[in-house]
Amino acid sequence: MPEFTMTIGGAAVETTAVFDVINPATGSPHAAAPDCSRAQLDAAFDAAATAYPAWRSDEAARRTALKAAADVLMAAAGGDLAETLTAEQGKPLQDARFEVMGAAIWLQYFADLEIPREVIQDDDRAKVEVVRRPLGVVAAITPWNFPLVLAAWKIAPALLAGNTLVLKPSPYTPLATLKVGELLRDVLPPGVLNVVSGGDDLGAWMTSHPVPRKISFTGSIETGKKVAAAAAPDLKRTTLELGGNDPAIVLDDADPAVVANKVFDQAFANNGQVCSAIKRVYVPERLYDDVVEALAAKARSVKVGNGLEEGVQYGPINNRPQYERVQELVADALANGGRAAAGGAPIDGPGYFFAPTILTDVAEGVRIVDEEQFGPALPVLRYTDVEDAVARANATDFGLSGSVWGTDADRAAEVAERLECGTAWVNTHLALAPHQPFGGFKWSGIGVENGTWGLVGFTETQVVHRAKR
Ligand code: NAD
Question: Is 328 a catalytic residue?
């Protein structure tokens, strides 16, 4: 049996074809992943459909199974699973361990979450209740930046609601997700959670397959639009968690050193490869040089390297196309009047390492400001009038999240509420939690994940109307 197998109907499944998974810290193949055939995908959807009637009918059993799954993942956080995640994704081992724990925390949270059921009328004429019913089989597709935690954002609410699932990770990071399928084989009833792996074409087969009633997708805007189109012919439900170009607006009463320190952390988390990382910072003219210098000093001081090495804070960029894209966007900024206050170039070596980069003297119209860079390079923009900064922050098709930073938190909150985005943070960014709905305005997505709102997205609304006369 190969090291990594798919999980279909509770069993380990091998494939005739495999594909290489590259370790981004070395640029070399790390392991081979199964390449799911169309017949195997059919088998996965069949297994999910077969498991559905029993799974949907026993809520108590679902909660028990989700708790057991959470315990298994929590116990796995210190072991090989995190190392597998680091080897395929690049993130430091400690961050990989936190990600495994995060997945466990999400499962635990949903295991206890109430499924809403509301009486909206109860009088002498009728009792009317609004209840939530599962959809059936769900197809879940995830990206390469947080393979495990983003899978848990789908697995936990989908299964609690009574659906069954076929999950496909990114071809850049399939291994840890396959391991999760393996770890949960004896914890969940066969067919409830099926894990398949393959290329982008496998994702397209899933979205046009007749069995799933919902597509829960996290990834790029470009692919999200294809998913929406593929779901349309048979009106599959979709939740689309897509890209972001999050602005952070620093107000003129902010302490530059304090804010720069926090903004750096929220921009470079996971090496900038977070949908809702800070991707452009607006700084008032008066504070500009101080904020830039503090950001640049921190960028120069952090340790970049192989995530398996002790003390490394930032790993490589996950894959070659993304590595080349970050180089291209930084080079474009430098060719268009930008200056690198720190970094600005790849780091020599076999892996996809790029120096943490602070770019100054760039503005809208330059690609790294207008597009999602999704990597360790942060443009810092000047403004003189806060109204202008808000208008510029909102002048985009993106709308995932944003933040406003200042000593007067009420004033900062007032500005934050004018940001056109799904989450508006004040004096923080990237503060995500299982009870907090997360989703994007505009092209950053449709629907939300997490909390009761995310759970409801894995259900149909049913009205139960009992006449009394
Ligand atoms: P991607 O869109 O290239 O791939 C995402 C997933 O979709 C992968 O599993 C891929 O194999 C699959 N896929 C590719 N083509 C498909 C198709 N035609 N039909 C169905 N599935 C298909 O995205 P990526 O490069 O893996 O991830 C980075 C992007 O994800 C960034 O834009 C980032 O902002 C976004 N993201 C968003 C969130 C969020 O919650 N909003 C979270 C993390 C990442």
Answer: no
The predicted-structure confidence for 370-383, as pLDDT tens digits, reads as follows 999 999 999 999 99
Q: Is the CB of 173 under 6 A from ligand 1?
A: no
For residue 236, give Cα distances in angstroms to 55, 210, 357, 446.
21, 9, 42, 13
* Per-residue pLDDT, 149: 98
204 lines ligand 1 (CB under 6 A): yes
Atom of ligand 1 nearest to the CA of 224: 2
DSSP 113: P
Q: Is the CB of 216 under 6 A from ligand 1?
A: no
Query: Do 142 and 151 meet the contact criterion of CB atoms below 8 Å apart?
Result: yes
Joined tokens for residue 326:
């970050």
- pTM, to two decimals: 0.98
Query: Among the options 36, 99, 275, 372, which is catalytic?
Result: 275
Q: Is 353 in the pocket of ligand 1 (CB under 6 A)?
A: no
Six-digit token pair at 85?
């995640």
Token pair 């380990």 is found at: 12
Who contacts 375 (Cβ-Cβ below 8 Å, separation ≥6)?
A: 271, 272, 273, 317, 322, 323, 325, 326, 329, 354
